[in-house]
Amino acid sequence: MTVLLTGLPSAGKTSLATAARAALLAAGHRVEVLDGDVVRRELWPELGLSPEDRERNLTRIGSVALLLARNGIITIVAAIAPYAHSRAALRAAHAGVPFAEVHVATPVEVCRRRDVKGLYARQARGEITGLTGVDAVYEEPLTPDLRIDTTLEDVGESAARLVDFILHGPVLSSPHGGRECSGRF
Ligand SMILES: Nc1ncnc2c1ncn2[C@@H]1O[C@H](COP(=O)(O)OS(=O)(=O)O)[C@@H](OP(=O)(O)O)[C@H]1O
Ligand SMILES: Nc1ncnc2c1ncn2[C@@H]1O[C@H](COP(=O)(O)OP(=O)(O)O)[C@@H](O)[C@H]1O
């Protein structure tokens, strides 16, 4: 199964992926995390943040995710993935392999307060432009398989909901592997 965690910078994607991985490993599952920030640095440092490169980034992540997922590894992708059409393409590429889109739906004001990497402050000071959710587009998922607003819970609570969804939610529980195989996409 591939699980895409999509959301704004500082929404909580990396924290949730890391905590969910630990819980799933402890329960005996095989798990990998593909974090946008990490694969960009280690696998394709030539990609920037233009719309074309963001699309390429998700396509490449999707290829790796599919290899892992179809070999029985729970693959958690933590990426901003700002474009609805790129996310739909990722889902479509998983034909026959369970796939779920999880919107880490933390509001931009909360993300700005967290500002883990100082990006919101840098954008406000005019040092960078094209920050997703501020002056670059983030197309909110309209029908995600799961939505997690991290505003009112801690990482452990949100991660527990994510793990429960992965192990017991409709995607893996369905005899057809969730809606990916339902013909809607
Ligand atoms: N302008 C701007 N907009 C968005 N993000 C920025 C920007 N500049 C740097 N960064 C950092 O780059 C990380 C990009 O992560 P992704 O690969 O997940 O992005 S994308 O899906 O290709 O849009 C992203 O990682 P996360 O903070 O973990 O989400 C940012 O830390
Ligand atoms: N319920 C929660 N889920 C995830 N992160 C949370 C939550 N509550 C607070 N946070 C904090 O929000 C920040 C999210 O940062 P990070 O995971 O790096 O975000 P992203 O990968 O989306 O850029 C972390 O400092 C984390 O501790």
Automatic annotation (TrEMBL):
It comes from the Bacteria. Keywords: ATP-binding, Kinase, Nucleotide-binding, Transferase. The keyword Kinase applies. Pathway: Sulfur metabolism; hydrogen sulfide biosynthesis; sulfite from sulfate: step 2/3. One of its GO terms (biological process) is sulfate assimilation via adenylyl sulfate reduction. GO terms for molecular function: adenylylsulfate kinase activity; ATP binding; sulfate adenylyltransferase (ATP) activity. GO terms for cellular component: cytoplasm. Residues 1-149 form the APS kinase domain. Its EC number is 2.7.1.25. It catalyses: adenosine 5'-phosphosulfate + ATP = 3'-phosphoadenylyl sulfate + ADP + H(+). The keyword Nucleotide-binding applies. Catalyzes the synthesis of activated sulfate. Belongs to the APS kinase family. PANTHER family: SULFATE ADENYLYLTRANSFERASE. This is Adenylyl-sulfate kinase. It comes from Amycolatopsis xylanica.
